[in-house]
Write a structure and sequence with these properties.
Layout lengths: L5 E5 L7 H8 L4 E5 L17 E5 L3 E5 L3 E6 L7 H13 L22
Antiparallel strand pairs: 1-5, 2-3, 3-4, 4-5
Length: 115
């Protein structure tokens, strides 16, 4: 394992309720909210989908949006039990490895080590 773990997971039809996810994970992980303010006159399909949660375990962190989760490490280290738990929780919420139901842009999960 030479590079830090990085992987993206997706949710398709229904957006994730970030408040619900925050409530579910707050007892086990450090959570912060990243708000992206927008202009009142803005025309955008994604205007209401800019907020994100950042969930941090020991060496693994996840940036969660309504349809995508980015899992990453700052340094290449083995996953702790807490990191593995965060990974499992994210995989339960964001169930797909590609952004669309169509059979392209599939990204396999990189290998990782555990303690």
């Amino acid at each position: 394992m030479s590079e830090p773990y990085r992987h993206v997971r997706f949710r398709w039809w229904q957006p994730v309720d970030l408040e619900e996810v925050s409530e579910k994970l707050k007892d086990e992980f450090e959570i912060s909210k990243r708000e992206m303010p927008s202009e009142g006159q803005e025309i955008s399909l994604y205007k209401d989908q800019r907020d994100q949660l950042v969930v941090v375990a020991d060496t693994l962190q996840a940036s969660l949006g309504n349809f995508r989760a980015n899992l990453s490490q700052n340094e290449n280290k083995p996953f702790t039990k807490k990191d593995q738990k965060l990974r499992e929780e994210i995989f339960e919420i964001y169930t797909h490895a590609r952004p669309t139901p169509f059979p392209w842009q599939w990204v396999p999960e990189p290998e990782y080590e555990t303690e």
